[in-house]
Amino acid sequence: MGRGERDTVARGTRLYEAAQAVVGDHARAVEAVRAALKPIHDEAVKRELDAIPVARLQDVTEGRLRLGSVEKSGLRTLGRVLEAGPYRLRQIPGVGQRTVDQILAAARRLSEAVHETVALHIDVDRPEPRTTALVMALHVLVEAGPEARRAVDKATVLTERLGPLLADAGPAAGRVRMLLAGREKKARAWAAVAATRSLVDEAEQAGLPGLLAQASVDLLRGTASDVAAWVDFELRSAEYYSLLAEISGRPPDAAAAEGFLPDEVAERVRTQHLDDTHRRVSLRGYQAFGARFALAQRKVILGDEMGLGKTIQAIAVLAHLAAEGQSHFMVVCPASVLVNWTREIEARSALRVMVLHGPDRHYAFADWKGRGGVGVTTFDALRGFPAPGGGEVGLLVVDEAHSVKNPKAKRSQAVGLWAERCERTLFMTGTPMENRVAEFRNLVQMLDGDVADSLGERDALAGSVAFRKAVAPVYLRRNQEDVLTELPSLQQTDEWEELSASDEEAYREAVRAGNFMAMRRAAYMSSGNSAKLERLREIVQEAGENGQKTVVFSNFKDVLAVVKEALAVETTRVTPVFGPLTGGVPAQRRQEIVDDFAGVQGPAVLLGQIQAAGVGLNMQAASVVVICEPQIKPTIEHQAVARAHRMGQVRPVRVHRLLATGGVDERMVKMLEAKTRLFDAYARRSAVAEATPDAVDVSDTELARRIVEEEQARLGMTDERPTSSEWGVPRSAASPQDPLNGRRESTNANE
User: Fold this and answer.
1) Can you name the residues that pair with 495 across neighbouring β-strands?
2) Is the model's pLDDT at 322 over the cut of 80?
3) Average pLDDT of 52-69?
4) Are 452 and 278 within 8 A, CB to CB?
5) Where would I find the H helices in 357-401?
6) C-alpha distances in angstroms, 253 versus 150, 366, 476, 484?
7) Nearest CA to 290 among 322, 256, 324?
8) Which of 216, 238, 496, 507 would you label with 164, given CA atoms 20 to 30 Å apart?
9) Rounded Cα–Cα distance for residues 343 and 659 (Å)
10) Beta bridge partners of 607
11) pTM greater than 0.70
12) Averaged pLDDT, 400-409
């Protein structure tokens, strides 16, 4: 046995030890989460048991127990009964040993159910040592990300394969041991060395040693501070809760997470492999199932309720297919979400993305066709592109798919042709199409003619079970309340829109005048089409389709007037519009308007000036919040959102912030983003800061002046400096020029 064999054993040993270290580091990180979770979970269980009346024991025993004397003794809740124990119960007059045994057996059954189902909600507004410890423990694993999990999986397989090989190759580690080994051991050693060499070479070629080393570093790095962990939790709470559910072993109801699919379909989906090589985000259980559903069934409709991450599930499918060797993908969506799609794909995956929109879309299409990647285009632009040949496109994703429900529309015909030519198709819509069988059938027809032909009106009339069974091969829908066990949650989305031509013209005029406030609301003031207004209509419409209430906030009264007029045209028949609540509305009247809004059965819209409606009013009837433009002070948006996301809210709150690319909105977001996170983290943990929000905000005037000057430079208007009158105030009244006074628009809540 020569040096080469000894070197092989040494290489194998180093790789084996590195793999063991990663597995151990991950196990310790997981155990730290479990240790931090236990006291919080135990307290939540105790709280739940203390709220269950002792009479509930009758349900478990089918009314066989007599509990009157137990209640009279002061043991009125399940928690008190369990604390009392058999001795205390036996001292109650009229309660015998048999009754004690029955009571405790029933109580333990209920207690076990509570242990399994109690939902843990991490209160970011009231952190305390135990929740901070849990968030910090979770932060280690979340920050390590999917790469660490991938490393652990590979390390586990590697140790299982290398361990026995290294044991058999042991004699090869030294000449004396090899000489003393018998013939059989020598033969096994030779074979084990050869297998070890092959396995180590394969691992090194795949870059596994580097992956293992990086994973160990990430898992041992720890958290910089509790503030950093809390800030990250607020930004990525879904990933924290997903990890928590996985570690605690208390995922949401499996049937609900699987959309109540028939067993044969669900089983086929469960066995579908999901490759995460090109994905940069972890999935919740129901999201992974949704991605597997699209892969297993090939042409499907994902109809999850708004806010469950349909985009992430689509990206997971794209990443999997890319790992399998597919090179070309197409995403079709409304122009209003084009920017969102490109940003999400870039942030959540390693896939190349190209925008196939605008004047140069045909050149971009030719580049996409030659080089591959994910093309993102609009319904109208798709009509101008040649349909692919069979097998060229690995996946066609159609967002807001209910937009192509009319088979006579040209956009529907274009999508239908692409769907026919593509290997796989994923339609996405948050609108509950189950209630419109004819329209739903039109969508299904593009995916599976046999299912569409078998889908009749009687399926819908027969009830949801019959309908779901009929459409199960192509349709998956989950609701928030079924799969998000940490409800209520807060989900915030930046809706990036590209200004229309009329928007751009109005914006340029505001920049030329140096009028900061006019720049902020230019996207709503043009006489032509408004990109932001169109997206706002879509959000309100989808919320209405799902029976949800919406609050729309703006800093400006005239923006709210435009919004009210736009919504009144389409929504008042089914969705009443209330407000606007402005500084000029007396406080009592404001509350009456909010009460009327809350009292409506079903969807409704409430309009409010953000500083007037965002303070002092509880709007927890709403679960959708739209902010028409970014605010100068970070605390203004937080206070407004808190009107809906507060105690008493029974549904998760989704916040949509409407932003325009390339102008004042983008500059405001970039300037405030980093400071907002820290301001938020500290302000929410400091009574003084919360009482005086202005103390943690940047200078309004300075920020406005910088943005105006930068926008004038970007648009080539540096030689068109406004006079003092164009700023709206004499220079003597605002020194130097004050862009915030460009127009005397009141945002005073008391005005």
Assistant:
1) 658
2) yes
3) 77
4) no
5) 361-371, 379-382
6) 26, 46, 16, 10
7) 256
8) 216
9) 13
10) 552
11) no
12) 91
Q: Tell me, what amino acid is at 327?
A: S
Residue whose token pair is 């009339």: 461
Question: Whole-angstrom Cα distance, residue 678 to residue 689?
Answer: 12
How many residues appear in the chain?
Answer: 751
Alpha-carbon torsion, ordered 213, 215, 221, 222, to 10 deg: -160
DSSP for 77-126?
BHHHHHHHHHHHHHTSTT--HHHHHHHHHHHHHHHHHHHHHPPP---TTS
H helices of 455-556, in order, are 457-461, 464-471, 480-483, 501-512, 516-525, 531-545
Find tokens 């679960």 and name the residue: 623
Which residue in this structure is represented by tokens 């169109």?
A: 534
Thinking of the domain 490-741, which architecture would CATH place it in? 3-Layer(aba) Sandwich (3.40)
pLDDT at 616 over 90: no
Q: Which CATH number fits domain 251-483: 2.40.70.10, 3.40.50.10810, 3.40.50.2000, 3.40.50.300?
A: 3.40.50.10810
- Range from 242-256, 607-621, 643-657 carrying the lowest mean pLDDT: 643-657
Sheet architecture: strand order including 353-355: 353-355, 373-378, 328-333, 395-398, 425-428, 299-302, 475-476
Residue type, 292: R
Whole-angstrom distance, CA of residue 394 vs CA of residue 329: 6
Q: Same fold for the domain at 251-483 and the one at 490-741? A: yes
Angle of helix 97-117 relative to helix 78-90, nearest 10 degrees, comes to 160
CA-CA distance, 16 to 208, in Å (whole number)? 11
Which sign, positive or negative, has the C-alpha torsion 348, 477, 489, 254? negative
Both tokens of 743, joined, read: 């127009």
Q: Quick one: three-class SS letters along 33-90?
A: HHHHHHHHHHHHHHHHHHHCEHHHHHHHCCCCCCCHHHHHCCCCEHHHHHHHHHHHHH
Residue 380: count other Cβ atoms within 10 Å of its Cβ. Answer: 14
Contact 20/149 with Cβ under 8 angstroms? no
Structural domain boundaries in the chain: 1-246, 251-483, 490-741
pLDDT band at 728, cuts 50/70/90? very low
Q: What is the distance in angstroms between the CA of the first residue and the CA of the last residue of the chain?
A: 92
DSSP 3-state helix, strand, coil percentages of the chain (rounded to 5)?
60, 10, 30
**Inter-helix orientation angle 531-545/557-571, to 10°:** 50
Alpha carbon distance 400, 383 (integer Å): 17
What pLDDT sits at residue 688? 33
**Residue of 450, 456, 380, 373 lying closest to 415 (CA atoms):** 380
Mean pLDDT lowest among 54-63, 157-166, 184-193, 524-533? 54-63
The DSSP symbol for 350 reads: S
Q: Is the peptide bond before 736 cis (omega within 30 degrees of 0)?
A: yes
Specify the DSSP class assigned to residue 389: P
> For residues 465 and 479, what is the distance between their CA atoms, to the nearest angstrom?
16
Residues sharing a CB contact under 8 Å with residue 55, sequence separation 6 or more, in sequence order:
67, 71
Contact 661, 497 (CB under 8 A): yes
